Amino acid sequence: MRESDFRTSVMSLDLNFAPVLKGWEALLHGTLVTIEITACALVLGCIIGLLVGIGRLNPKRYVVYSLCTTYITLIRGTPLLVQLFIWYYGLPRLDIMLPAFFCGVIGLGLYSGAYISEIVRGSIQSVDRGQMEAARSMGMSYTQAMLKIILPQAVVRMIPPLGNEFIALIKNSALISLITIHDVMHEGARIISTSYRDLEVYLGIALIYLILTSITTLALRKLETKLRAGGMVQ
């Protein structure tokens, strides 16, 4: 396409954001659902990630280590969309009926947990091993040393990579609309079905996701800056 033709096509582009503004209540409701599911999935992912990450620290515990490794391999090796479809469309074949909201939280939580577990494992292993040995020599059990000595230091080191995972989780949540959850993408699709202004609606949805990820990024940067100022992050 010649430059003149491109300019003509851009100038003739008819954008009408009235349907987006008119449907702001539906988009707001969808945004709140997105935030709710993402928050629940984040909590679930952090719990799973912590347990699986610790479970992969000691290969000598063969059963636990193998189960954790298998979980990570399966989750990270298959698409999130396929996993969500298995939870929502596949389980009913086994007479297991779960609400769409629950399927979305489980799907996103398990998926995020697999990545968080590697962050947890790497952060814990980055702490000097001598600190564990010193804690054990003082009479602490492995669990006590992990909770009181190792994890507090590891958590601080997890913040930057966890921030990236949190942002990825927000963006991945766009897929839950495909299992009939009324998130912001689903509400946007309803507006498109009546207004036929798909470009404008998708631009509005993109702006919403941009705002959510920007707020998350800003909050994490402030937290990291605060920790650096306190000398807790190297």
TrEMBL record:
GO biological process, one term: amino acid transport
Pfam families: BPD_transp_1 (PF00528)
UniProt keyword Transmembrane helix, yes or no: yes
Keyword Lipoprotein (UniProt): no
Subcellular location: Cell inner membrane; Cell membrane
Any GO MF annotation of the entry: transmembrane transporter activity
Transmembrane segments: 26-52, 64-90, 96-116, 201-220
Every ABC transmembrane type-1 domain range: 31-220
Membrane topology summary: Multi-pass membrane protein
Alphabetized InterPro entries for the sequence: AA_ABC_transptr_permease_3TM, ArtM/GltK/GlnP/TcyL/YhdX-like, MetI-like, MetI-like_sf
Subcellular location, principal: membrane
Keywords associated with the record: Amino-acid transport, Cell membrane, Membrane, Transmembrane, Transmembrane helix, Transport
Homology family: Belongs to the binding-protein-dependent transport system permease family. HisMQ subfamily.
Function: Part of the binding-protein-dependent transport system for glutamine; probably responsible for the translocation of the substrate across the membrane.
PANTHER family tied to this protein: GLUTAMINE TRANSPORT SYSTEM PERMEASE PROTEIN GLNP, MEMBRANE COMPONENT OF AMINO ACID ABC TRANSPORTER
NCBIfam families: HEQRo_perm_3TM (TIGR01726)
Protein name, UniProt field: Putative glutamine transport system permease protein GlnP
Organism: Saezia sanguinis
Lineage: Bacteria, Pseudomonadati, Pseudomonadota, Betaproteobacteria, Burkholderiales
